Design the sequence.
């Protein structure tokens, strides 16, 4: 009889532990969901700031950005230091940080639109204070060098928007119709699902998880810092411009050695633009290079996402849950 009581007691303890573990797992999943800033509506204000490269002779593009916002029924607030010049940068680190911090703190600002990328965002990351932003969350918008901010915002627990920047605006917006259209839809709460062109390089499969990532160089640069992102259970998007293939392989190998892909659910490859030719040729396509670097993993890999440094740069909501279905004939990315 004592053995039976002991067995029943152990069984009840085991069941209670299982229930508690399930509750803890659910709690973790709920905590890991990122906060979505309010989508915009007519009358809202968008701040235009320049956290990175210099805006030399770019007044016309900023004017186009203001006009585009106004055509959408939004107000534009251009940072006072946007056209400042400090060597490579759009003002000193303190000036660029001041504009960005003012936009973060202003409760009347619903989105912060980065004027351009280039290089420089990493120099102001540790100067930024998100305490007031957390009281009034807003969309951070941009790509390329702005990946550093996407990472930081993600780690603070908020979604952000990988989309065109002000300098992307051409004289004839019909040239970038899809870019502007998906940007506008994302701003107002209807982010686009994507049916991507197929590729024989696609690694087939299905996955779901938060969409994270951005520019490969910036993701690599963040390694080892508080701004590096955890890709566990997530789907990683990457894009790049102006690199040698061996540089891309080196970055992927570094991320791999750091465990970046160990628990990743999938990879979406955007534009790999203006790749440079080394005197010693790599010998394979960029697609095969990526497949080879990630050959130790079984997650799906989708190529041909039109996002990155081309005119056709479709908007993506980073930190939002997506599902990914990859085949050789097409890939579907849906929120």
Sequence:
């Amino acid at each position: 009889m004592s053995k039976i009581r002991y067995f029943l007691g152990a069984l009840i303890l085991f069941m209670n532990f299982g229930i508690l573990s399930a509750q803890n797992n659910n709690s973790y999943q709920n905590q890991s969901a990122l906060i979505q800033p309010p989508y915009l509506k007519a009358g809202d204000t968008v701040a235009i700031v320049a956290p990175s490269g210099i805006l030399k002779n770019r007044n016309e593009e900023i004017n186009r950005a203001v006009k585009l916002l106004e055509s959408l029924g939004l107000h534009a607030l251009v940072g006072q230091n946007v056209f400042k010049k400090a060597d490579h940068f759009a003002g000193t680190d303190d000036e660029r940080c001041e504009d960005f911090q003012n936009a973060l703190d202003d409760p009347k600002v619903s989105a912060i639109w980065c004027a351009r990328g280039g290089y420089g965002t990493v120099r102001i990351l540790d100067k930024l204070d998100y305490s007031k932003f957390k009281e009034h969350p807003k969309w951070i918008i941009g790509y390329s060098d702005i990946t550093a901010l996407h990472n930081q915002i993600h780690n603070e627990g908020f979604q952000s928007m990988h989309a065109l920047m002000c300098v992307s605006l051409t004289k004839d917006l019909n040239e970038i119709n899809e870019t502007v259209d998906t940007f506008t839809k994302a701003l107002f709460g209807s982010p686009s699902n994507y049916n991507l062109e197929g590729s024989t390089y696609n690694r087939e499969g299905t996955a779901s998880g938060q969409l994270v990532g951005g520019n490969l160089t910036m993701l690599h640069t963040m390694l080892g810092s508080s701004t590096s992102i955890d890709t566990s259970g997530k789907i990683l998007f990457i894009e790049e411009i102006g690199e040698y293939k061996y540089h891309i392989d080196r970055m992927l190998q570094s991320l791999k050695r750091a465990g970046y892909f160990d628990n990743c659910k999938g990879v979406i490859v955007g534009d790999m633009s203006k790749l440079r030719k080394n005197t010693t040729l790599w010998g394979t396509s960029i697609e095969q290079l990526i497949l080879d670097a990630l050959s130790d993993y079984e997650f799906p890999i989708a190529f041909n996402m039109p996002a990155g440094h081309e005119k056709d740069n479709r908007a993506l909501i980073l930190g939002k849950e997506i599902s990914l279905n990859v085949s050789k004939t097409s890939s579907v990315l849906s929120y």
Notes: The chain has a mean pLDDT of 92. The domain at 45-187 is CATH 3.40.50.10740 (Rossmann fold).
